[in-house]
Amino acid sequence: MDTSLIYKVAIPLVAAILMFAYAGYLWVRQGIHVRGKGWMSKKEAPKTFYFTVVFMILLGISQLLGPVFWLLR
Q1: Please, are residues 42 and 32 in contact by the beta-carbon 8 Å criterion?
Q2: Domain assignment present for 33
Q3: What's the CA angle centered on 23, arms 21 and 44, to 5 degrees?
Q4: In the structure, how many helices (H) and strands (E) does the chain have?
Q5: Domain range spanning residue 23?
Q6: Dihedral of CA 23/26/32/38: which sign?
Q7: 8 inside domain
Q8: The dihedral of CA 53, 54, 55, 61: what is its sign?
Q9: Considering only CA atoms, which of 34, 14, 16, 37 is closest in space to residue 26?
Q10: 71 lies in some domain
């Protein structure tokens, strides 16, 4: 089996799982770590909270779709 295929599929899959897990952690804890300020709740920094959660979900989806596009080439 081609090891480059494993790396091109397994690494993005693991990265996507970690991104979804971090977004889920933020959602459950209802807060975000802001550089220089520490942990802030969703009420204290709502724009940062929602931006980070949506950004992590979009990055996770792109990591899942990347190998699909690569395999279809």
Answers
A1: yes
A2: yes
A3: 145
A4: 2, 2
A5: 3-65
A6: negative
A7: yes
A8: positive
A9: 34
A10: no
